[in-house]
Amino acid sequence: GIGADNDLYINQAIVFIEDAIQYRSINHRVDSKSLWLYRWYYSRTCQWILSLTITIILALAFIEKPSSLTVTSDVRYRLPAWNPPCGLTESIELLCFLVFVVDVSVKSYLVGWEEFWKNKWLMAYILTLIVSLTDWIVSLSFFCAENVRIRRILRPFFLLQNSSMMKKTLKSINSTLPEMASVVLLLAVHLSLFTMFAMLLFARTKDGQQDKEWVVYFRNLPDSLTSLLVLLTTANNPDVMIPAYSKNRAYSMFFILFTVLGNLFLMNLLTAIIYNQFRGYLLKSVQSSLFRRRLGIRAAFEVLSSLKEAPANAQQSYVSVGALQQVLQKVAMDSRCKQAIMRSLKTCSCDQLSAAQFQKLFEELDKDAVKQHPPSPEYQSRFMQKMQFAFGHPYFGYLGNVVALANIVSICVVLVLDADKQPSERDDFFLGAINCFFILYYLLEMVLKILAMGLKRYLSYPSNRFDGLLTVILMVLEIATFAVYGFPHPGWRPEFMGLLSLWDMVRLVNMLIVFRFLRIIPNMKFMALVVTTLLDLVKNLRAFAGILVVVFYAFAITGIMLFEGAVVPMGNTSVGPMNSWSIGRTTLMTLLSKCLSRKADFVTLFGHFETEIIYCLLYLLSINLICRWAKIYFVAWWLISSVIWVNLFVALLLENFIHKWDRRCHRESLSDIEYQRTVELMFRDVLEEPTEEELMEKLHQHPHLQLCR
User: Fold this and answer.
1) What's a GO biological-process term for it (predicted)?
2) Among 14, 146, 357, 628, which has the highest number of CB atoms less than 10 A from its own CB?
3) What backbone torsions phi and psi does residue 533 show, to the nearest 5 degrees?
4) Is the dihedral of CA 61, 64, 66, 69 positive or negative?
5) Which residue intervals of 321-428 are DSSP H helices?
6) Could you give the CA distance from residue 100 to residue 122 in angstroms, rounded to a whole number?
């Protein structure tokens, strides 16, 4: 009936608008049952359950045999780790697999069977589940005694397929591979030529005493290749040239030439090529996201214009304001946007909306989220007004920065003077006294600012919240110190009492004071620009962090399986025989744990990308614990993590920084307004709006939506 059709159109419009808000594709089933299932699937509860399941199945690697639940990772000294009984982790895995089966079934049904056969990700999802379940059955049939478990390597795929941004990133990387391959080939030619030169230059001679370079680094072709490949990462520099340099200084020219050509030219050329190919990645991605949003809004307009209450007009379609208000009541969207659209509808004098008016209403979604600070309190007293002017002035903030700098300098002076003193010789009176003085100043500053600005306005600034929180913590620590150890006095060195010693308390206070000095960053424009660029990068480019986790995880699990039992722990004979795992396993799993616990600290991880793995390779090869073919594993790791991934990250960092720098140079500073930027908003001014013809053509290609016109 007419009522049922109208309800269907309303529900379709609700889902299409929600698709537009989340930048989702609208190519899914649109009948009433499918729409209910679709909204249920994308509800917060379902998506939270799916994310939790992915986290659990990835975290199983830390408790499965070999378990990582030990205090130390040193295989010589750690006690035997707790290994879960057969069936425990397998039961958790099965529950996770069941969630994934439901996930892929719902996704496959919603897109429809025709679209399903075109979707490579869904096909790969099903294949991964089949292989994983088969491997799970094999594990149980062997009573969990088998060492090679293929499903462990496949686990990162579940994380990969759940993120549309990670899929786009992989697609962009795939398009960049041909150009990267040409430079990698050039690197291989460079390496091969210098390997031959090295074997000729450092050939074996009659004098065995002069052959140290040949014995250690260039004995044969594989050794020569390995030595120069490691030199390309600078991990064995200058060790590799010391024997030859000791013999004749002129030999250093060979190594300098190799390093200059390889590191300064070819590696940086690779970075330039990747940046050139990849610099439009974000722009293309955001352009396609904008098209999805416009398409979703237009689809909502088209279905609402099909309502029976809408007036028939052969020339142009219209949507009634009442119908849109009914839809907006049920749409899950940001309250700010919803209120802004509702206000626009109330101020609109017309009862019908054209396609252009409808689209313009939803441009509110594209606008910056503006945070306006509450007003300052209005005092009647002239004295209070003068106080408000003085302590609300920016110069008062600058004075606080000068005091914070003086605090840092005083701490540095005390640390330098006490660096070589024994704890028994150290007098903490001076440090305790100056800490007490500065903390009292910070407390006074906070109170005066709250008085001048009002509590709500004071808390509306992130820098004030940061200052206030640290000031309160510092006050609590100082009061606790005085309660336990008394007030500072000459020779203030009481014995250890309570949870922390006096020196621990003082150190904790000093660390917080040093941390508080970061308050100066917003006052230094260039430094603030760099910091906000990095924060935006971490916040908005989670896809790269996800791919980093995927790469670490896959290589760590592969290393566990390849190098099992390669190293027998020595040094802790009291523990007895252990089912040991290799240095590769220890190193890689340590790296993985660092990655998972410190995802944002990319610079620290980059330091480990090359050196730890290359040293691991050299050590294992030197003591003949792994075969020569194991080099492929380590070289593949170096190429993927260090050469490709790091350069991709550098390219994105440059693109984000340059774009933000250009925007900051041309943007007026607004003192009372803070703009919350996202990736979608960064490129808003350079995006192209899709045309009417493009939108309608795409809508008519919808596999499940039949439009009236």
Assistant:
1) calcium-mediated signaling
2) 14
3) -60, -45
4) positive
5) 321-330, 335-347, 355-361, 382-392, 394-417
6) 11
Contact 614, 233 (CB under 8 A): yes
Question: How many CA atoms does the CB half-sphere of 315 hold within 13 Å?
Answer: 1
Q: Which of 21, 18, 702, 695 is CA-nearest to residue 291? A: 695
Half-sphere exposure of 346 (CA within 13 A, CB side): 6
31, 110, 440, 675 from 512: Cα distances, Å: 58, 52, 15, 29
Angle between helices 646-666 and 602-622 (to 10 degrees): 160
The span from the CA of 97 to the CA of 102, in Å, is: 9
Phi first, then psi: what are they for 690, rounded to 5°? -65, 145
Token reading at 532: 């906000």
Number of other CB atoms surrounding residue 674 within 10 Å: 15
Token digits of residue 242: 């010391």
Measured CA distances, 602 to 23, 126, 336, 646, 649 (Å):
28, 33, 35, 9, 10
Residue 319: phi, psi to the nearest 5? -125, 135
- Give the CA-trace dihedral at 291, 296, 301, 304, to 10 degrees: 170
Report the alpha-carbon distance of residue 678 to residue 673 in Å, rounded: 16
Sign, CA dihedral 359-360-366-369, equals negative
Contact 377, 345 (CB under 8 A): no
- Model confidence band, residue 587 (pLDDT cutoffs 50, 70, 90): very low
> For residue 594, is pLDDT > 80?
no
Determine contact, residues 497/484, Cβ cutoff 8 Å.
yes
Cα gap 214→240, rounded to integer Å: 11
CA distance 245 to 665: 51
Q: Which residues contact 632 (CB under 8 A, 6 or more apart)?
A: none
Fold of 382-523: Four Helix Bundle (Hemerythrin (Met), subunit A) (1.20.120)
pTM: 0.72
* Rounded-to-integer distance, Cα 616 and Cα 631, Å: 11
Residues 6+ apart with CB under 8 A from 391: 448, 449, 451, 452
Please tell me what DSSP assigns to residue 581: B
Best CA proximity match to 703, nearest among 10, 111, 11: 111
CA separation for the pair 471, 468 (Å, rounded): 5
DSSP reduced 3-state for 372: strand
**Taking a C-beta distance cutoff of 8 angstroms, is the pair 275, 654 a contact?**
yes
Residue 674 has what DSSP assignment?
Answer: E
Q: At what angle do helices 44-59 and 88-111 cross, to 10 degrees?
A: 140
What pLDDT score was predicted for residue 600? 32
Question: What is the rounded CA–CA span in Å between residue 520 and residue 402?
Answer: 9
Q: Looking at residue 217, what is its pLDDT?
A: 82
Alpha carbon 128 to chain centroid distance?
25
Q: What is the rounded CA–CA span in Å between residue 486 and residue 476?
A: 14
Which residue has tokens 């290359």?
Answer: 614
Predicted pLDDT at 467: 82
- Token digits of residue 187: 């690197």
User: Is the distance from CB of 258 to CB of 228 less than 8 angstroms?
Assistant: yes
Rounded CA-CA distance 77/571 in Å is: 7
Tell me the C-alpha distance between 174 and 492, whole Å. Answer: 65
Which tens digits make up the pLDDT trace of 191-222?
999 999 888 888 877 766 667 788 778 888 88
Q: Which helix (H) or strand (E) holds 371?
A: strand 369-372
Rounded CA gap, 133 and 139, in Å? Answer: 10
Looking at 70-211, list the stretches that DSSP marks H as alpha helix, in order from N- to C-terminal side.
88-111, 113-118, 120-141, 150-154, 156-161, 164-201
Q: How far apart are CA 484 and CA 476, in angstroms?
A: 12
Contact 355/317 with Cβ under 8 angstroms? yes
Amino acid at 369: A
